Amino acid sequence: MAEQVTFAIAAIGALGFGIGVVFFRDAFRAAVSLIGTLLSVALLFIVLMAPFVAALQVIVYAGAIVVMFLFVIAYLGDRPIVAGTDRMDAVQPVAWIALAGVAAFGAITVLASTIGPEYTASDTDVGSPASIGNAFLNQHIIAFEVTSLIMLIAAVGAVILAKRAVMLEGGR
Amino acid sequence: MTVPISAYLMLSVALLVLGMLGVIRRRNPLLLLLSIELMLNAGNVALIGFSRQWDDPAGQVFALVVMVVAAAEVVIGLGLTVAVFRSRMNLDVDEMSSMKG
To answer: pLDDT tier at B90 (50, 70, 90 boundaries)?
Structure first.
């Protein structure tokens, strides 16, 4: 019973704040709304016995990533929204059809397919740091190494982008 | 009583569609990236749900990799946005149509 109540709260929170992310005009409010979605999803992870991933979700996502968003939003500031000519107007109906198609396809697939065994309510240590570390280093070592490579590429790329932007403005 | 796994999958579909809606609607590149974060989180919900269903930590490993990809994507996306939009024009991806510096 407690699990269902927690799931309901987290699901409503995730969807509600998600609607905020999509529909708030103000970029700052949309970013703060994303924090709500991320925390709700972290709550779902705890319900699903994944406390380690939930902790990383809060620290990495709601902490670092959203702060980076807020920093850039504050840096670029509010620019006036100009109702210019939208060159993509002609293809917009295709986008809406694709969206409706994905929604219908996802819903039908989930409802119509046999998903396999339901999980049991038993205690499991599948989400403990020890078991995740074990899986990472014993079965998914390539993913682990690729992860570090991606981080390195992203860091180098960000530095180069920032340097070029400064050089274009005449700095060093 | 536990929550059926299909409930998590439906929530995942809903979040993904919400993110797609954002990508279609938004023209501000920053908000576009926010919507992509929403979609990546939808994927993570499904992955963690499957990990719980099969009692296998592989799903959580995937979710962590998705998180790393999201972090890298945000770093590069925000770097590009700042590089392109810091000096000129409105925050509108439709205006970013030329590849000239």
So the answer is: low
